[in-house]
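Ticket #4471: structure output looks truncated?

Reporter: J.K.
Steps to reproduce: submitted the chain below (298 residues) through the standard prediction queue, then opened the result file.
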Amino acid sequence: MEFSINDAINNLWEKLDGWLDAIILKLPNMVVAILVMILFYFLAKYVSRFTKKIAFKGIKQESIKQMLTKILFAVILLVGFFIALGILELDKALTSILAGAGVVGLAIGLALQGTLGNTVSGLVLSFLPKVRIGDFIETGDKKGYVTEISLRNIVIRQTDNEYVIIPNSTFVDNPFTNYSWTERSRIDVACGVGYEDDLEKVERLVTEVIDQNFEQLEGEGVEFFFTEFGDSSINFVTRFWINSTKPKPKLAAKHKAIMLIKKRFDAEGVNIPFPIRTLDFGKNQLQMVSKHSGNGTS
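Returned output as attached by the reporter:
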């Protein structure tokens, strides 16, 4: 028993000694491999940065530039990794790694379906011309400026300066509105006038005041429509166009239009009625109120 233990210890030391000799012999190769990886890291960093500024200069969409830069960086780094394995004479190990990559990739794919879905959606978003860095978009109950499109998510900065991170697959699978895609937006302003007012005069006043203060391009123009007979007014809506790629100019234009219409109506004697409620207190209600008041004073 004692002899077997000694043999085992001797065999262990022999193996460790052999490994140590192998490490010493491979030490220069390991140093070179590490230097190669460091070299390729900085090479990938500077080449991708240079390519983004020069080669990708003609690409207008910033998200595409960022995605291509990341892919180029990863490819160069992967080439350096393979060269380092070759220096370490791990070609057989590399073959085994590639052989098992299919099985491992399948297992990882099944385990990370959501993550891979986000990655594919990120690639779709990066090459989707309808969404660009800096655009003002709205999806669901979230809206703001697109600040980043990565392989996993899209980052939106809301108007209150809070950031919202949305998974790419969620964003791609749901409808969204891009306010920055067109330079012109239509504004709707609704109001009402009294039944006693001249409707033709109302239409002329509103059309004039809007047309004089908001420039309309060819094919546009100010529109005016009476929409309904309301409880206390005849309601209308006027529509016109402004330059806008974000919500704030639309709010400012609507604010200005309301003030101009109100001012013009006041000057021309046009009435903007408001609902009036008539409370009818019958005889029984009056008696109850009187009785209640008497009890309160006794």
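Triage note (M.O.): checked the attachment and the full token line is present. The longest helix spans residues 2-53.
Status: closed, working as intended.
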